[in-house]
Write a structure and sequence with these properties.
Elements: E1 3-4, H1 7-13, E2 16-22, E3 25-30, H2 32-40, H3 43-51, E4 56-62, E5 67-72, H4 79-87, H5 90-102, H6 106-114, E6 121-122
Antiparallel strand pairs: 1-6, 2-3, 3-5, 4-5
Length: 126
C-alpha cells in the first residue's frame, strides 16, 4: 500500500512547539530555523487543506511571527492528538499520523492533490 512520506512532517515537527492550547484553539510557534521557510509557504493552500478537515473552524497563519493559530472542534479533533503530533515520541506521532491519514486526514490529502500540491508518497513502510 502506498503511503504518504512522513519525512517532511518529522523534519518540521522538530521545530514546532505549542505556545498555547485550550481545547478548541491551539497556537503553534515555529523555531527560528524554519521561520524563513514559513514565509515561502502558500498560506492560502494550507488554509484550503486544513479547512478540508472536519472539525477545523479557522486557521490564521502569521509567517512574520512564525505562528499558526488553529481553531477546531475538540469533539472531532481530539486535543491530545496535537500533543502527540507535536510533542510526543516520534514513534507515537508517526503511528497517529498514519492512522489519521487513513481516516480523518484523507479529505485533506485529497484537497491538497486537487489544489495541485504534491503529496510525497513512499512505497515502503515508513
Amino acid at each position: 500500500m502506498t503511503q504518504v512520506d512522513l519525512g517532511p512532517f518529522l523534519a518540521v515537527r522538530r521545530h514546532l512547539r505549542i505556545a498555547h492550547h485550550i481545547p478548541g484553539r491551539i497556537r503553534l510557534r515555529a523555531g527560528p530555523a524554519i521561520v524563513k521557510d514559513l514565509g515561502a509557504v502558500d498560506s492560502k493552500a494550507i488554509d484550503r487543506i486544513l479547512r478540508a478537515l472536519d472539525g477545523i473552524k479557522d486557521v490564521r497563519i502569521n509567517p512574520g511571527a512564525g505562528s499558526v493559530v488553529v481553531e477546531y472542534r475538540p469533539e472531532t479533533i481530539k486535543p491530545d492528538w496535537w500533543e502527540t503530533l507535536i510533542l510526543g515520541r516520534e514513534a507515537a506521532a508517526v503511528g497517529l499520523m498514519h492512522r489519521l491519514l487513513e481516516n480523518e486526514l484523507a479529505s485533506a490529502v485529497s484537497a491538497a492533490e486537487a489544489a495541485g500540491i504534491s503529496v510525497p508518497v513512499s512505497s515502503g513502510n515508513s
